[in-house]
Amino acid sequence: MKIEKLRLIDFRNYENSIIEFKDGFNVIYGENAAGKTNILEAIFYFASGKSFRGCKDRELIRFEKESASVDMRFSRGNENGTDSETKTEEIKKHLDSVHMGLKLYKGKKKVFERDNNVISRLSEYLGAFRAVIFTPDHLSLIKGHPENRRRFIDLAISQSYPRYVAYLNEYNRLLMQKNALLRKDFDNSNKRAMLEVYNERMAVSAGAISFNRKRFVSLLEKEAKKIHFDISGCKEELSIEYLTQSGTDCESAEETKERLKEFYLSKTDLEIQRGMTLFGVHKDDLNFYINGRNAKLYASQGQQRSAVLSLKIAEGQISKNVTGEYPVFLLDDILSELDDGRKEAILEKTYGKQVIITGCEQEYFEGLEINNKIFVEKGACKSCI
Fold it and tell me: What is the reported pTM?
């Protein structure tokens, strides 16, 4: 999967810019606040359907403008090791060029397009383009809030399994409605009957979410363990524990759903008493261990960074294993946050893929085989090689 061209119109601080990308390493450099991260934000929007910074859509529109648009053309195809000289015509047809568009408005809903056709459902849009984003904020993934860890796995799953986002949206919608019901002051017998309906419906989406998270964490641990072992000089073993109230011994989404239904029923009285939803997949979390010790409590900062680095590279490998091609790697000013050993590791592990890196100084990229260098200044881009 390779990005060919990106166009930004009134997106963040860009009035009208066209940026071309190449295979391998693409470097975007310039001073702070020049707009480097905005480019990555626009690209990742096509992978996730939202800003990785957690911003509202209206905040992405340039000051004093009512709308913004982003257009991206990328190629994708079979990357299962077929020699390019021996590819059949049928395989070559899959090496297609795809156009995706995004229109944002202050006064109405955003519009997604694919090959100039409007897409009405986000689940039909996700999965066409895939990317791994790695920012300095991710370096606190292990010690940070559980919400950040849930967001990490949910974004990764949604790209390879687009239907997953529909389960997330349904669960969050029902969760808001159930909380509103629990806060209302009326007869508990009526409240209990309505809660039974909500719990029945929530168990369906929660069962799918929990089962997919468990499956993804298993794949993540398998890949990240190998990568972390290499990065640590064959000295450390990384393991991951998925924490969920439904338990991790269920063999299917249906079995997980039934387990959750029973669990919700057993907690009804306590939730009525407290006036809020106390249990569900919105409480899930991950624990990370290095050589059997909880990384949150005992790992050094360097060990935690190595673990996060392993997780992000593993995310890209899982995408390759599931879809047949690597995603685009987006590295936002990350090299300045890593020591030489970890910097070398991430560059080695992403070699041969399309990588887009941002940074302030050209010195950050010394020793890197750069195929494309882009200078950014006040929302304007200029290709330098």
Answer: 0.89
